[in-house]
Amino acid sequence: MISSPQPPAPLRVGIVGTGYAGTTAGEAYRAIPGVEVVAVAGKEADRLAALSAAWGVEDVYPDWESIVARDDIDVVSVATPNALHDVISIAALRSGKHVFCEKPLAITAAAARAMVAAATENDRVLEVAFNHRRRADVQWAHRYLEETGVGPIYHARASWKRRSGIPGLTSWFTSRDLAGGGALIDLGPHVIDSLLYLIGEPRVVAVSAVAHGELGRAGYGAMDNREQMAGSGRFEVEDLVSALLRLENGASVALEISWAGHTADDEDISIELLGIDGGLRLFVPRYKPQDTLWVYRHEAGAPVTLRPDVTVAGGEHSLVITEFVDVVRSGDWTGHHGEFALHRTEIIDACYRSAAEGKEVTL
To answer: What are the C-alpha distances in Å from 65 to residues 43, 192, 226, 256?
Structure first.
């Protein structure tokens, strides 16, 4: 008698962080067959109790160390303030666990390198939640650039701009120690990741940047209008960064990331690619699911504009976690030690150094 193949052993997950990111990740894990959320850690007792009841998870802890110390957990999902990403991830990787980390990888390039080193030395998967690249419109643009192309891309414009989008003062987002920065380290990872993904992963070799935090310190731009920031002393980071990135292939990128501004911007994400034979624009106001793509070409001696019909269905965070689980289960973890996420952090780190030093910084 031939026995049927046995299903893989359940993948057991411990989640650190009970905010939106941790909850979203937890729901994504729970939707994957054969994956179990077995432990949750966080500082908010009420949130721990709520998640324990909703998910049927008995083991909840006020500290992340209790999850990392367990030898029956395969994956640690890190959804904490940025400053803890490297500490928790390195400890988990060294204990033999795979790590799924919310963006950014770390608050400094040095910390990010240490995370990648730990993943490599212990041969464990280190993945970062770059879910925006999984949007259907970004995926369409990626396929178009690979299959048809716009010729060599010599310049790009990439931005995420808000009119009033500074996270609340009661959160860790405006603390330099906990967040590592402001708008750039919050929104920038997604924009930089999607851009590099679209144009074929060229290396950024130099950065010249400026940073401003005037609106936040003046009391403008709060995501919640009931909060007043002026004179509080709690706004410790920037609300706008503008940078010129030089790429190894001679191309350039104009990058602008802002939480707030007295402008027409609302919640607008934009990537424009200028190629010799054509151009492509992705413009997403308020996470719009349709009419976000333009392709510009020159045909029969006249300019032509194409409007691809693409609908974004959502669920991108679940997609990236499903891909992470598939990689873990594959057993082949080469190239999945966080290397690509490291370069994103190096770019952000260089932008902050350039703004602080008032000069171009090379990577």
So the answer is: 12, 32, 36, 38
The sign of the CA dihedral 326, 332, 335, 341 is: positive
Mean pLDDT per block of 10 residues along the chain (363 residues) reads 60 96 95 97 94 95 97 97 97 98 97 98 96 97 98 98 85 90 98 98 98 91 67 78 98 98 95 98 96 96 96 94 97 95 98 98 97
How is residue 146 written in tokens?
Answer: 């690979």
Would you say 150 and 275 are in contact if contact means Cβ atoms under 8 Å apart?
Answer: yes
Q: Are 82 and 106 in contact (CB under 8 A)?
A: yes
Which residue from 185, 190, 241 is spatially nearest to 215, judged by alpha carbons?
241
Place of tokens 């190894």: 248
**Considering the entire predicted model, what is its pTM?**
0.94
Query: What residue has token string 């432990």?
Result: 39
What is the C-alpha to C-alpha distance for residues 216 and 260, in angstroms, rounded to an integer? Answer: 8
Tokens standing for 9?
Answer: 């052993």
